[in-house]
Write a structure and sequence with these properties.
globular, alpha+beta, three-stranded antiparallel beta sheet
Length: about 325
């Protein structure tokens, strides 16, 4: 299929229809209600949005699967791109091309809940950005970006890469009128996995903070520059967002994560890693700039210092 052919597929779409395609591409699986919050929050019901999604499905660009909310609750539609939809978006060059393709089977699997929880976290940042006069749009967080953390053949194992649940970029306008560019690694914990598994990932983040790639050729000069500096103006803060259980259980998980991080010498000794823990409820209710993040490496009270420090590069006024 020629380049012109995929682009011609979108010629008759509305503005929202055009917006839906890259959002579905980047986030892979997203609920009708989540799309409503992102694109048509000014309307009471997503009638027009559903019509546009129906057009995408009729054009062979998108498909949907059902998600039941609770055992006896109503069903909600979850949307994802078809192979043709992926081809159309990549031809438009609106988003960074990704190798991952969600299948109908994966869309209907247990993976959907974690994928939707990552989207919910991004939406919380996006909605608070709108309230605060900041910038964080539907394409400002990317799920599962791979970051190399050691040299050698990447086929030897998954430990060659750090893969956050998402990398989120947020442009904040400070009280002084300056623009502050913030980047976050997001880890979403729905209380469905062992705490030790997420705790081990802390060590991988610490490795990435200090990882300096080495040359493969004998005559090449060894690098003294950490790999993350090629991608980020400052090392991103790590935010762990807990959900899926009672407050008591989530507090216990947070304490366990703190204990695991404190016991890891790669994290506790001289790491650039700054990490905080909060809950999805606190993030939704109070926003990312409230004192809702408990530092991972000490038992201090919840703070906003993780997000309000002034070491990030900023744009001009």
């Amino acid at each position: 299929m020629s380049l012109a052919a995929p682009q011609a597929r979108t010629a008759g779409l509305s503005r929202i229809g055009q917006q839906l395609l890259p959002i579905l591409y980047q986030h892979r699986l997203i609920a009708t209600g989540q799309l409503h919050r992102l694109l048509t929050p000014h309307t009471r019901r997503p009638v027009y949005l559903l019509r546009q999604l129906g057009y995408l499905r009729a054009m062979g660009l998108a498909e949907s699967t059902d998600r039941r909310i609770g055992r006896m609750g109503p069903c909600e539609l979850l949307w994802y791109l078809t192979p043709l939809g992926y081809e159309v978006v990549e031809a438009s060059d609106e988003v960074t091309a990704r190798a991952y393709r969600i299948s109908p089977r994966a869309a209907a699997s247990q993976l959907q809940e974690h994928t939707l929880a990552v989207v919910d976290t991004g939406i919380a940042f996006s909605e608070w950005a709108g309230r605060l006069g900041d910038e964080c749009g539907p394409l400002d967080w990317e799920p599962e970006l791979a970051h190399r953390v050691r040299d050698g053949d990447s086929r030897l194992g998954d430990d060659a890469f750090l893969v956050p649940d998402a990398v989120l970029r947020y442009t904040r306008t400070t009280a002084e009128g300056r623009r502050q560019l913030l980047t976050f690694f997001l880890e979403i914990d729905r209380a469905t996995m062992q705490v030790a598994r997420l705790g081990r990932k802390f060590g991988t983040y610490a490795r990435y903070a200090s990882y300096t790639p080495q040359p493969t050729g004998r005559r090449q000069q060894a690098s003294t520059r950490e790999a993350w500096r090629e991608r980020y103006p400052a090392f991103p803060r790590l935010l762990i967002v807990l959900s899926g259980a009672s407050d008591r259980v989530l507090r216990r998980r947070a304490e366990d994560l703190q204990a695991l991080a404190s016991a890891d010498p790669r994290i506790a000794q001289g790491s650039q890693l700054r990490a905080g823990i909060t809950t999805a409820e606190l993030l939704d209710r109070h926003g990312p700039f409230a004192p809702i993040f408990t530092p991972v490496l000490d038992n201090a009270e919840p703070t906003d210092a993780l997000l309000t420090s002034h070491d990030e590069p900023g744009a001009s006024k």
